[in-house]
Here is the input.
Amino acid sequence: MIRRFNAFSDNYIWGIEIHKTICIVDPGQSYEVLKHLENFEHFFSIGAILVTHRHHDHIGGIKELAKSRFAGSEIKISLNESPIFNQMPIFGPTDCQRYGVKHIVSDGDIINIGDNTIEVLDIPGHTEQHVGYLFRSAHDQPPAFFCGDTLFGGGCGRVLGGSFIDLYASLKKISKLPKETLIYCAHEYTEANLKFAREFFPDNSGIKKRYAEVKKDREKLLPTIPTELSYELETNPYLTCKNFNEFKAIRMSKDNWKG
Ligand SMILES: [Zn+2]
Here is the structure.
């Protein structure tokens, strides 16, 4: 199963639970993860950390998790079929090495954790280097894509060190994943994204309907993530736009939107 941890005001840290091991995606903080493990200390240990990009709200908790008593598990982990003997490998792109990433990954790399497979996809644009992790469970469940700050519910990441053209290409790449893929992004931004989208596309009934649903969920403090890719393909303006120029125009308007 995939566990959600809250961090900062609107970040999500994800934990992939496999047997008695949990693999943590983008630990911007350590507190919520450690608190959870302390409650279940006889059950879980941290098998691996997966980092999508270098921003502090994705890497800030790595060091504390690595030195905690929960670091390291017995589960078999390999990268491109080579076994990793380090007990808690930390995967991520090259520019995350200074934050503790030891195993550099990029497009096409395959990480195996127990019987489960994680495929690495390069999805730059938000930052110059940014990877996503496509998790396929050994059990019959839809694929889960951990996309960091690239695609959000009803929106996409800002260009903060990357480029518009790379971000556009990365979103195209994500849109070709299986439609039932569940998108696990790193922020709860869906309501604001759809509020903007509704203003930008006032005649779009799909966006209008989704905004109303999301608003209700958020009033009850329910999370809107994960979201299914098929839903994003219908109602996310950065995936439904017709070409790069339209994409860039929407993204730039959102950057200047005051809400
Ligand atoms: Zn970021």
Observations:
- Residues 205-219 form the longest helix (15 residues).
- The two ends are 35 Å apart (CA to CA).
- The longest strand covers residues 11-18.
- The mean pLDDT is 96.
